[in-house]
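Q: Fold this one first, please.
A: Sequence and structure below.
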Amino acid sequence: MSVSQSIAILGATGSIGTSCVEVVRQHKDRLRIVGMTAWNNRATLEQLVAEFQPHWAVIGNHSGPSTQLLNGTETHWLSSFDEVQQAIRRDGVDKVVCATVGLGALSVVLAAADSGKGLAIANKESVVVAGPLLMNRAAETGASVIPVDSEHSAIFQCLDAGRRQDVRRVVLTASGGPFRGWTRSQMRDVTPQMALRHPTWEMGQKVTIDSATMMNKALEIVEARWLFGLSPEELAVVIHPQSIAHSFVEYKDGAVLCQLSPPDMRLPIQYALMYPERQESPAQRMDWSSEMQLEFFPPDLDAFPALRLGFEVAAQGGTSGAVLNAANEVAVERFIQGELRFDQITDLVSSVLSHHQFELKPSLRDLMDADAWARKEAARWTC
């Protein structure tokens, strides 16, 4: 029998959050939004609160909702993300959708894991920085962690087809971004406007630039390492410009399984919310009546050295993920502000990584300290 689930959406007004809301609209008999957060998109959050009447909501920049809307709803407006943690720990939330960008969501993600809640996670930073802590806590409490990113969702789905001990390799696909086929020297003069023209996906500014440098895929390598308990030797990347094949799982008998679908985040979101069931979805469908061609190319590690960093950090573990993530965030912002060339983004991150004081088994406090140190170093880095 189908069971209704109460969900909280962190980042309800962003691209992932908006897709999640569309899934809920399709399945109102199965999914009930009980909590919502947004950072500064006050108008959209107010509209969503009016539509879904959640128990609680919060605007991260503390600007607060309008009095008129408060009078028309039963929603309790929280004043901080500390209160969000408390709300998530209560019995009224079955599953948390983490659709935010940045490390600010880590405390809420860990709160969901600590309380044994289901976690549908699209927040790369939490897994890259604190993957072992998150997965260990989830294992202790029985919390489910189901990825929402298209690549990791594909891996999750394909792993259902076999036994973990029979996996030979997991291959993440990458579109290659707007500069596929370019040399590193050609990318010296790339502007932010050029980097923001992604050929396949519509994403936020920072994620789009990460895709252009392929740092996004480096972060996903580290994510896959912790989400699925893989060794670095079991991970690989292939360039797939069409973004139809969303990663592969190769088994030791030679069978390779892949999940195919048009690039539409509503499918992996719905899968994470309704796992293990499959229901009708608002996502786009494959058109098998039309001719199509799927291409696959090996990645150019010289042109996109961020990929090497991803494999290195996946192998090192410890505080490396925190430093990789923090240094890259600062580097991307400095590129947007005109302080760095595009090709210097990865140079900065590599330099900061090579100089940090590595801890193999860091505490949460150690990870936060590494994050803060890396941001300072990245802010003052010069070539």
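Q: Good. Now the second chain.
A: Here it is, same layout.
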Amino acid sequence: MELVVKGVFSRKVTKIMEQLCGASFLKLTVSALCAGLEMPVKSFNRRRLEEAFPFVLVDAMFFKSREHERVVSQAALIVSDIRADGYREVLGLQNGDTESFATWDETFRWLKGRGLQGTMFVISDAHRGLREAIRKNFQGVTRQRCQVHLLHNILGSCSARHREAVARDAKLVLHASEFPEARRRLEEFRNQYEKFAPKSVACLEEGFEDAMAVMALPEKYRKRMRSTNMQERINQEVHCRERVIRIFPNDAFTERWIGARRIEQHEAWLDRRYLDMGEFWEWVKFEGSPKEEAPTCGQAL
């Protein structure tokens, strides 16, 4: 099971086991043994969520799977969080045919049914269906648009010869230490690039308010909460192993394999506190909730 979870081909597993144990294993035998991952993954995905989760990060990754002798694209919807005590968790994983409002809406309702509560910030990209699902299920919560995704969108809207300069100056806007400074830099960005990269300027202006919602937080929390990088890193690790497998044999195997990788990450996260939340809770107590702060420097949903 461990070899398969690490992304080793079934045929290679059989060779390894023959060398170690002197016994032959058919590919079907390996697959049958790995079916034992199903119950741990299901138990993990069904566990009650008893804590408060002020920061929730959502993202999707895509993979190929066989379905009725066809190869189809599938989406894995993954939700992680930072708890009230500063530790990280993987809340759950849902597979869907696509990333859409319906699949995200179902995922959020599933998590709330398991006890998800106390959410103040949701960090995500700007996928339309995802935005609508957040608005429906997290009313009054501030949505932070992932600045990394926004930057990719900005760079994808300009020609290659301007890309380096646009990236440099867009980062100056997004990484400003104060909100008025960010607005001033946005104006400079507009004046500099509205002739050479008008689509990039429009993209930054459209996403500016949501991308700067993090400015409502105390400064020590802004860097880590400005993007979904915390989750993207583990997605990249899964993608590295997924490239070895290439095409998953079926949806059940996909759910077991990705779920097992998430359980490993979840357990690793619980070994170390990610954030000291003391200043955050002092800010909530004396400065007001993100819901009250957001209209001045972000968009409350």
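Q: Anything worth noting on the second one?
A: The mean pLDDT is 84.
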